[in-house]
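the two lines:
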Amino acid sequence: MADPVLTFTDRGIYCPAADVFIDPWRPVDRALITHGHADHARPGMARYLATDAAAPVMRHRLGDVAIETTRYGEQRRIGDALISFHPAGHVPGSAQIRVEVGGEVWVASGDYKVEDDGLSEPFEPVRCHAFITECTFGLPVFRWDSQPTVAGQIDDWWRRNAADGRATILGAYALGKAQRLLSAIDASIGPILTHGAVENTNEVLRAQGIALPDTIRVTPDLDPKDHPGALILATPSALGTPWARRFGPASTGFASGWMALRGVRRRRAADRGFVLSDHADWEGLNTAIRETGATRIFATHGYTSIFRRWLDSQGYDAAVVETEYEGESVETQDEA
Amino acid sequence: MKRFTDLFTRLDQTTKTNAKVDALAAYFQDAPETDRLWTIALLSGRRPKRAITTTYLREWAAERASIPLWLFEESYPIVGDLAETIALILPDATRESDNTLTHWIDMVRTLPTLDEAQRKAAILSAWDQLRAKERFVFNKLLTGGFRMGVSQKLMTRALSRATHIPEPDLAHRLMGDWRPETTSFDALIRAPDPETDLSKPYPFYLAYQLDGGPSSLDTSSNDWAAERKWDGIRGQLVLRGGQHFLWSRGEELMTDRFPELARLIDYLPPGTVLDGEVLAWAEDSPMSFNLLQKRIGRKTVPKKLLTEAPVILYAYDLLEWQGEDIRPHPFRDRRARLDDLVAQVPSDAPLRASPLLTFDSWDELAAIREKSRKYNAEGIMLKRWDAPYRDGRKKGDWWKWKVDPLTIDAVMIYAQQGHGRRANLFTDFTFAVWDDDNLVPFTKAYSGLTDAEFRKITAWVRKNTLERYGPVRQVKPEHVFEIAFEGIQESPRHKSGVALRFPRMARWRHDKPLAEANTLNDLKEMLAAYG
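prediction for all of em together
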């Protein structure tokens, strides 16, 4: 019997026909990268292949590495495999990787969400025989409100804080979530200040032509009093630190899918939790999987064993694969 | 319901005490009066009785959400809260309504009179007209586990601000055996009649832990009285109008659980209220807490248990004397009257005064404290001779100075994810000690680490899982933790033969090699010494 199109190794997802790895977590010769988050794009690979939209952030994060780029939908032959990248809707530049060998198609989807966030290239279903999926939020309790609804909640909160003379500090991951928030909120409410890690990513994305509202980088000599009514976009780990306290009386918020759970919301000890994720919710996962037409499903990270059982009951041939992907961490781990 | 849900959301959204009090005070000023009363009831633990089994709720919610029941059951522990799981899983409401909190509580109270089909229809209809957060609140009313992150103290403060009645008066009015179904906001709060509730207890005064030892109190040891801190059940015995009532600290009536105390009506005058510890008692000394434990869960007591584990009230304070509230009097006077009262009671009656310890210096008291375990005591209680009897947990006049816990160094061998607040962190661990070359599990522990440590161990568990048994992961034996606990007893149900009281992780012993963790023999020696 021929090798499967993709196999699961202790270094990452491997394609024998092309001799390449997808999002490997140990050094390999050639790595195909779905997107620039730290658990998917790791240092130490001899060669990288990613979308042209993902590459700048990867260079910013990984330094001077050898990255070959590809456009969405562009098909290339590597060894005996046909390989192409397709939008995953997770963050700008993020991709699902389609691998075809001898007419059999597998798709490794990395992280994805199906709602169009107006910033990332919208998710495209890719027909395949086998689909490798995350399930960070693979439980029916996770159902996202639409982005405009959540953005409206954040705007209301910001407006009220500004009116009450409080600063508004919103925690969000530096790559993806922060820019999504920037593009979704009503930037006319007040000035927007950014944490250095957020602003660094903003600069990278702006340089590749992604439009973001004006922001002001928080530097040591910045006087918060010069920017009354500001929204301060911070990394999650900056919340509650001296960095955040310099803004004086403030209301703090955190935007994450985990904020759907009251317990997690309370543990974060932020004043407000906004339910906004760059991962698919329950309905999103199920829709995405259905639209691939795949019969075999591999769940890589998230509530894998429960999700596998659910898929099984829906008639799929489903399995759990152990990987080192982390999905949306609720903890304060920052993407540079 | 919207007003109450808004209150709930505001309380839930802030960790700041002042913001909570503001939200509550505003609510107590403008919410409908019956809603106010019910809110006080909910915040002081007086919930409507559970009207329906959760089994039905789970089934109906899963059915309404079109998911299999097992998937609901798997989701529930991750969310950590049944009411929330149901609220999250249900499809959006298709109708709108704006009924009061009281309306929905009345609806919940009528459920027991309906048959199953009617109940189901009523609940599905409610779910279909409540918005997501209201639905969560409604489910909380149904399941009967309402916690809102507001202590009775905070509520009393807010109520005081809204009504301009002093806090200690309100705290007292809110005690005891009142039910929102049978009273009104006026009768309870604005114009209470002291005769209506003979059983009404006083708010308990609660002590803070004295972390630095008594030398951290910058007053002389002469200012302080000391007693042993008994390991029993705190109880307030109220004798009025020829009746007696025994209240727990959680304001639960325990009168029927400890029928032997009824005898005291014969010896103590009406208008007497005592604060003390209910203890299992043998001749001249308290028995271990394990024996008392047998009586805690029982509403009525079989004869055999009454002889096996008879209880007494070990009194340490007198709050009411000859019908007068003497809490403002100094402890010195209250204690003297208590001793007079107890002296009138025959020696075989179930009442004694917890002895005062004699000491001339803190060092002397420290030496007495060292012997606590021998007396089945948890440490020392310090009470300032000049202090009134305060209400609630207040710093300054009472301190508990507990003995140091017992400790043992153990190896982590299993890990499980937490739920609720700690979903997606590994927080529940099983620990083992060496028995020759084997690791024998002997306890679980869930608390004691910082959030940062939990995050660190979670990352480690993910990478060092040897085997999965459902939600439980067997991990590589590598990390040693110091487990602290308050007591140890024999337990045939446990593989190790022992069970610990209040085990928790005191320290992560990064410095300790695996081989130097304690052994089963060490545990057995502890059992022999302290069991």
